Amino acid sequence: xxxxxxxxxxxxxxxxxxxxxxxxxxxxxxxxxxxxxxxxxxxxxxxxxxxxxxxxxxxxxxxxxxxxxxxxxxxxxxxxxxxxxxxxxxxxxxxxxxxxxxxxxxxxxxxxxxxxxxxxxxxxxxxxxxxxxxxxxxxxxxxxxxxxxxxxxxxxxxxxxxxxxxxxxxxxxxxxxxxxxxxxxxxxxxxxxxxxxxxxxxxxxxxxxxxxxxxxxxxxxxxxxxxxxxxxxxxxxxxxxxxxxxxxxxxxxxxxxxxxxxxxxxx
Amino acid sequence: xxxxxxxxxxxxxxxxxxxxxxxxxxxxxxxxxxxxxxxxxxxxxxxxxxxxxxxxxxxxxxxxxxxxxxxxxxxxxxxxxxxxxxxxxxxxxxxxxxxxxxxxxxxxxxxxxxxxxxxxxxxxxxxxxxxxxxxxxxxxxxxxxxxxxxxxxxxxxxxxxxxxxxxxxxxxxxxxxxxxxxxxxxxxxxxxxxxxxxxxxxxxxxxxxxxxxxxxxxxxxxxxxxxxxxxxxxxxxxxxxxxxxxxxxxxxxxxxxxxxxxxxxxxxxxxxxxxxxxxxxxxxxxxxxxxxxxxxxxxxx
Lengths: 267, 301
Hints:
The complex is a heterodimer of chains A (about 270) and B (about 300). Chain A is an all-alpha fold. Chain A has 11 helices and no strands.
């Protein structure tokens, strides 16, 4: 119950602080740019490429062979763009789960009233809800564009919306979990982002080294969050959930690391 | 028998090789406010942090209201004013206090009523919709005390509640502790020993991470001593005159410059001293039975 209250507070905090509102505004502006200068021209380009036969040549080389399986080109481009953009958005919006509260001492007021794990998971849950809502908004804007451009694809696109929502939510979970972990160690959102980058680069380098040293190991291909993205680009529809276990496992591992650190760390 | 609030057995906390608290065995019971004193680095904040569960122990055992520190069962029963902890400066005071009250298990309606009550208690009812960033340091401290009073907890730990506070705000905080101590036990850490002497009945003294003593603020052993503070009287002149009074055993000067006068019968000696001061037209500023807390803890003897 207290975890739910903490998650609710995380959402309300976003909506009732200047910083939270600026984050939302920033997100909206970035998304408007992506929509206007990315998704719309790209979908128009691919439609043209399809008509000229260029797509058969070009898209498999770009790893986008499954795009034709999506009901509307806008949705296909949205899918590709989101796979790369939303993790970045998740990293930025969820950087300050506990960091500034710790440096300010506010966390001490909370710890007197609920357990450290309730705070850790409550804040994580709140960020998950925020990201899910943001994904819904982005998906909604793309569906509106489809309705305006090619209304005949709207019904089929609406049918695919749940699978996209589930997939993208699963995609961002490990990134939010990573920020939950580094937020426990950091004293500010900026420091948390820096720690996340250091961890990411270190693991990437370690994986590269291990692969160079011991040859290709299938397991190492799945170590980093988002490692399933290249596979998702080749899939569409409910097939995309074939790789759902990977982000879930990443999330569980990252939450275990972050949660155990939160449990032991002095405040 | 009073309820045991805090029970420590050989409690210790180390940071690397440095020991912040070492082998503290202590039992605090419900009742009047308890003073936690000691010089900087004595381990006062460490002890408070251990009781609150902000930090983990390195050695020994600790129970707070029968629970391990940080246990969910302590929510609403234990509260604290941690040193230098601040509320979120961006959100209104009322909203943050309501949220904390809800975490203690109160319904939204009850939380609103409780926040109103604690803000009235600290005389900051009008600050409900103000952000902490817009309040003075003293007001922020009172708000922090208000959060500690939410739900009328059994034990409240106040770490330096009047540090950096102007005299009117400090006095208000002292009055507040006095009023609330009928229902709540306060453990107050402070360097202001005069303040603690007026507020508390028990004193816990730490030094270099070790427990030196636990006992009453008014020590029977020092009752045969009179503390006298004079205004503009030559020391040699007073010493000579006072030494000739009947029943005076020993005269010395304490760390604060007060005269410490040991007598066979302190009541009779007090009367003789008053008579002496009146006869010589010497003005005094303070006369009290026993040594001050500062003199007892940091005096030469």
